[in-house]
Amino acid sequence: MDIIKSSPGSRLLKKINSKSSRTRPFKVAILGQNGVGKTAFTVRFCTRRYIGDYDPDLERIYTCQRVIQDTPVDFEVWDTAGVNENSRLKEQIRWADAIILVYDVTDRCSFNECTRLKFLINSFSRKSRWKILSDSSSDVIGGIPVALVGNKADREKDRMVHPEEGTNRAVQLKCVRFHEVSVQEEIDDVITVFEDLYIIYRKMKKFRVSLSSSKTSLTEEKLVSSSDDDPEECEARSRSGDFRRGTIISDPDNVSSSGDISCRPRSRRREAIYTMS
Ligand SMILES: Nc1nc2c(ncn2[C@@H]2O[C@H](COP(=O)(O)OP(=O)(O)OP(=O)(O)O)[C@@H](O)[C@H]2O)c(=O)[nH]1
């Protein structure tokens, strides 16, 4: 027995086992039009630093670890280069466990681009991994969790997109969260976006596992009972001013019912994996 243990084959097996027992990273793709601040946002989260200017053609997967609810979580964040070609997007969307759609509050085009991107996310995401209910109800909880984020909130004078519009668009597009941030000025809001999304992802996953294991047939009525999907409630919140930079539109405890809770890149672009401590 000892001989088998120390043989090269068993050493290899041991290595494979220890690798597979490591926690799987949480993969987040950052999508959005050129210049909205995707790289600044990603680097801020991974390093806490704000760096003003980046090579727009540089595309990277950053890795870092954060402790969320007393658990260490490995993040892989794919900072896309804003090319938004459909074939490229498909690869990014299929790679990701969750997606952050970023727009610039001073640029309405970038806001509209998020609608197109969400449409593509819906059509490209690996629905099969979530599909455990009937077709109609899987639309309610199926798909990948997507957060909508308006960046550059510090540029109030140049603002073109108001927070209410962001909130309403997030509801329309069935995003699980809406945030406004200033990557330049505030790090905590940036961290909240990622942590929130992770918490939502975990809850969605747990919910689906428990559904599939118990083979419970949930009615669509139960699934959509949360007010998070209610555009009227959302509008009421907007009217009452219940939004601010960094505010979220739904409660993590209701994640299972919050709307569309629905590879490494190979391209001519330069790529790298960066590990942040
Ligand atoms: N005022 C302000 N400027 C910001 C903020 N975040 C990013 N920027 C600036 O916006 C510009 C674009 O930022 P990037 O991070 O390169 O944007 P990107 O989306 O990665 O751009 P591409 O790589 O071309 O897709 C840079 O000059 C940043 O300094 C912010 O919160 N406030």
The portion of residues forming beta strands comes to 15-25%
Helix-residue proportion: 40-55%
Q: What is the arithmetic mean of pLDDT?
A: 73
Reading the helices and strands in chain order gives HHEHEEHEHHEHEHHHE
Largest sheet: 7 strands, mixed
> What is the radius of gyration?
20 Å
Bound molecules: guanosine-5'-triphosphate
What is the class of the largest domain in the CATH system?
Answer: Alpha Beta
Description:
This protein is an alpha/beta fold and 277 residues long. The protein folds into 2 domains: 23-209, P-loop containing nucleotide triphosphate hydrolases (Rossmann fold), CATH 3.40.50; 231-276, no CATH class. It contains 10 helices and 7 strands. It has a 7-stranded mixed sheet with strand order 6-5-4-1-3-2-7, sandwiched between helices. Strand 5 (146-151), helix 7 and strand 6 form a beta-alpha-beta unit. Helix 7 packs antiparallel against helix 10 (231-239). The model is unreliable at 1-6, 16-21, 130-140, 216-239 and 250-277 (pLDDT under 50). Bound molecules: guanosine-5'-triphosphate. The site of guanosine-5'-triphosphate has 21 residues, from helix 3. Belongs to the small GTPase superfamily. Ras family. It catalyses: GTP + H2O = GDP + phosphate + H(+). InterPro entries: P-loop_NTPase, Ras-related_GTPase, Small_GTPase.
